[in-house]
Amino acid sequence: MPEETQTEQQVETESQETETAPEAEATKADPWADPNAARREIEKLRKEAAKYRTKASDLEPLAREAQALKDAQKSDAERLQGQLTAAEERAAKAVRTAVASKVEALASAEFADPEDAAGALDLAAYVDDDGVIDTEGIKSDLADLLKRKPHWGRPDGGPRSPRPDRTQGSSGNNNRTSNDPAAEFAAFMKQGLTRGR
To answer: What CA–CA distance (Å, rounded) separates 122 from 101?
Structure first.
């Protein structure tokens, strides 16, 4: 039996060695399996994390400053863009006003109401990229417009003047006085005397 005991012990020892061998290999492959190795790994990771936290805290003010500069540049760009847009709108309005004035001035000779002519034409078509107004184009388009809408023209071709209304004034209510100053004075005195009674 001693041989049997010895062989049993050898089998148990061999099985224990085979069981511990994979554990050692597993410990080398997985540092979390061994508590000491796990502590060392945790300390290593803590130091690394502390290093990154320090770097992050050092870089945080720089990041804020960079963001502030970016925001300032963006707001300046937006402000400048708004100013540019407003200036372009003012310039376009000034050009439209100048062209409308030119159209009305040229239309005043033949049209009863020159504003009608300015409203009927596309004013932007008479200005080139340099801002020069095409006077000849305006004249030819005004002539075409007058052919299409002859009722917009002046009735007699001359300036319109107001016509007097004969029903207004002293002649309309038959209260006409003579042009003789003595007769006018007499009428005035007569009115004053009749009111005083």
So the answer is: 13
pLDDT, tens digit, for every residue of 167-192? 666 554 555 555 778 888 888 888 87
Predicted structure pTM score: 0.42
Query: No. of H helices and E strands in the chain?
Result: 5, 0
Structure tokens at 120: 């009927």
- CA–CA distance, 22 with 28 (Å, rounded to integer): 10
Q: Are 121 and 103 in contact (CB under 8 A)?
A: yes
- Residue 133: partners with Cβ closer than 8 Å, 6 or more residues away: 98, 99, 102, 126, 127
Token pair 């000491």: residue = 36
Q: Return the SS3 of 127.
A: strand
